[in-house]
Structure formats: structure tokens, C-alpha cells
Amino acid sequence: MLESLRYGAQENSVSLGRFPDGAAGFSRLEGKTPGANNARRRVADVVINEVMYDPISEDSEDEYVELYNRSSSPVDLGKWRLEDAVSYAIPPGTILPAGGYLVIGKNAARC
């Protein structure tokens, strides 16, 4: 069987591979393991917790994405960005506290 993978932009120092070895898809891994079984899948501290993609108002300006920091430490979101329906570049120095939420609206005045 012959396979290929096209790489786009990647995070510095984050390995990409199959977990468990031989799995169908590729995931971010906890570490680099050249010549050994792949490390476990890396679990992200910040996750998309909620997406409002079809508001009851039927106005796309009411769309939003909610991020949640499920870790026990604050996370610097500076330089993160969302693209497509809700587009936003998070300013440098934006800290999401442990257990905190951040709502990013397509139109912030309507959130």
C-alpha cells in the first residue's frame, strides 16, 4: 500500500503521526519518537466548546465560536486566529485563564 501526506503550516516542535501506530488518520503527538512507536496523541488545552453557525435570528452576524481552556494553567492565545465564517486575529498578550471561556463573535457588538 502506498500513501502520501501533504503538509501545510505546522506548529514548531510538534510532531505529527498516527496514534496508535497504523491508525487511519494523523494527529498531533506528545513527543518525537524516531525509530520507536509513536507517542500518544497530544490533547489540546484549549478547545472549541461551542459554535453558533445557524442563529435562530437567521442573521449570520450573530454567529460565534466559544473557546474553553480545560487545563489548570492559563494559556496565551496571542497570535491565534480564526478563519472563515467567524474571522478574528486574537491580539498578542490575550490570556485565557484556567477553566476560562472566550467568545469570539462575527460581530462582537451582537454577542
Reconstruct the topology from this structure.
Layout: E1 16-17, E2 27-28, E3 46-52, E4 64-69, E5 75-76, E6 81-82, E7 88-89, E8 95-96, E9 101-105
Antiparallel strand pairs: 1-2, 3-4, 4-9, 5-8, 6-7
What does this structure look like?
0% of the residues lie in helices and 27% in strands. The protein has 111 residues and is mainly beta. The protein has two domains: 12-43, no CATH class; 46-110, Immunoglobulin-like (Sandwich). The strands form four sheets. The chain has a three-stranded antiparallel sheet with strand order 3-4-9, with no helix packed on it. A hairpin with a 5-residue loop joins strand 6 and strand 7. The N and C termini lie far apart (50 Å). The model has no long low-confidence stretch (mean pLDDT 90).
What is the gist of this entry?
The protein has 111 residues and is mainly beta.
Essential attributes:
globular, two-stranded antiparallel sheet, 111 residues, 3-stranded antiparallel sheet, mainly beta, Immunoglobulin-like
Which range does the strand content fall in? Answer: 25-35%
Question: What number is the mean pLDDT?
Answer: 90
Q: Report the uncertain regions.
A: none
CATH class term of the largest domain: Mainly Beta
Q: Please trace the helix and strand order, writing H or E for each element.
A: EEEEEEEEE
Radius of gyration, Cα only, in angstroms?
17 Å
